[in-house]
Amino acid sequence: MSSIFSNLRRDEDDAWVADYGVYTLHSALQPIFSQDHEGVLTLQAFEGLIRPMRNGEFVRPGEFFASVAREDSAMIDSLCRSLHIFNTGALNRRRAKLFLNFNPGVFVTNADIRREVELIKLATLESGMSPDRVVCEITQKENDSEDMLSRFVQELRHHGFRIAIDEYGAEERDIARLNLLKPDYVKFEADWVKEFLENSAGSALLRVMVNQFREQGILAIFEGLEDIRQVDICNNLDVPLLQGYALARPELAPTHFNADFPETGELPREDVRPRVDLEPYDPSVHMPKPAPIAYTAAPKRTATFGKRMR
To answer: Can you spell out the DSSP letters for 80-91?
Structure first.
């Protein structure tokens, strides 16, 4: 069960990384915040994102995943999540959750499901975290079996993990997935949200949806927020959780986030250390599925913890 952990190692910065062929896999973590009515931010969670490196250079995740042998896809899927779990656990935070991407389509039997959930639980406990701090982001493909998807989520819940639906866009298929999985969190599709934020009618609809989810015990997450104006609109809409470059960029493990966003709620010191943006990508583009892997550098954020800078 733990053999996959033999692929993990510590690098010179004491972060967890993994090797696959000519690639070294690095974890990046991107913060997810709550915001009070005065615009004060509190770090609530991280999302784990993969940053592969080849010959000393970072490459696009899609290029890496395209090179993974088909018979290795499930192993790499698990390895990515384990990397993120260990790097998040190394932060020694008491409350922050970790969002992990899952593509249930790679698990085709009940034995596959049980094996994967046990593996993730083992990694979680070994890292010093508890399963209720791990949020499993479910992405559903067109041809995925709803029965298998439901079994997968039931097994995750049985072991104490939380569930999120990714890329929700209020289409019939999204609503059906919502009713089937009954998630704890819903991540709204980034481009869809940004389009609706641009006009009052769209914003009013988003407010209604956010409130309806809250009444059902589901927290909405708006991701891909790229400027402070969007964050301010979300504040007016009382959106529970926010994620995007306007707040904080992904940062390679080991991160500076404990210094930048202390759990005490105190304002952090001003971070003047230069950071290199290792992501020549469109910020609205997510890591390709299957799931995350490890190690990424985070560009400098544009807003501080606590009261946001205007």
So the answer is: HHHHHHHHHHTT
Distance of CA 279 to the CA centre of its chain: 16
Q: How far apart are CA 209 and CA 192, in angstroms?
A: 13
Sign of the CA dihedral running 244, 246, 251, 254: negative
CB 45 within 8 A of CB 247: no
Kindly report the CA angle at 222 between 15 and 183, in degrees rounded to 5?
85
Contact (Cβ atoms closer than 8 angstroms) between residue 89 and residue 81:
no
CA distance 284 to 244: 8
The number of C-alpha atoms within 13 Å of 138 and in the hemisphere containing its C-beta is 30
Phi, psi of 94 (to 5 degrees): -90, -25
| Identity at 50, one-letter amino acid code | I
Closest of 149, 103, 23 to residue 288, by C-alpha: 103
DSSP bridge partners of 306? 41
Stated pTM of the model: 0.83
- For residues 259 and 253, is the Cβ–Cβ distance under 8 A? no
Tell whether omega for the bond before 290 is within 30 degrees of 0, i.e. cis: yes
- The tens digit of pLDDT for each residue in 149-202 reads 889 999 999 999 999 999 898 778 888 889 999 999 999 999 999 999 999 999
What's the pLDDT tens digit per position in 62-79? 999 999 998 898 899 999
Distance CA 251, CA 256 (A): 8
